[in-house]
Task: structure prediction
Amino acid sequence: MMAVITIPREAVPYMLLQRLEVQELGAKIHYSILGKWVYKLYEKTPGAKHLYRIYSMKIEPMFRFKRIIEKYVGVMYREFQQIAPYLPDNANKIIGIGPGVGGLEAYMSRYYSTKGLSPEITLIDKSRIDDIYYGFHEEAAAYNSLDIARSVLIDNGHLGNKIICIEADDLHRFDVYGADLIRPEHRLAQTRQFETLRVLVNNPG
Result:
């Protein structure tokens, strides 16, 4: 049986933008044979991004929020199952890079709580909603709220004083020494912020 985590309704718009798997309209377009042509039209049509932003942030979350949460939890659980065999037995410091709303970190928190551990979890992301686009671009768009990610961890039993939230642009002020586990997200793994973090980990002094 799948272990279920608690996700607040206010997280739904962010999940919808972060995860294609939980979308309805966006997923149908993406997986259709006309997907790439629709994306090109979307990029060039004035007002298209504004209209889709309204649809993604207001309309779809209003009518499908329960289903979106169910699908998101399912995605996070499957991803956790994939990494669980490789997690260290002991972890005092976990860094989540591009954690979204913190679903995977919530599952990791539960995993370590069963071992009597409550590791410090650091969430690194950009708290904003950029223009909505798809495909390859020079810089990845951000659709996230670190405040919501923090609340997701707390709602699922993680201690508030064991959560640190860092804006990606502020990495130069962050001490990564002693991290037991770093979980990168593919969007941020190719950015200058992640490169900064990699250098800090390899050269903690």
About this structure: The longest strand covers residues 120-125. Confidence is low (pLDDT under 50) at residues 186-205.
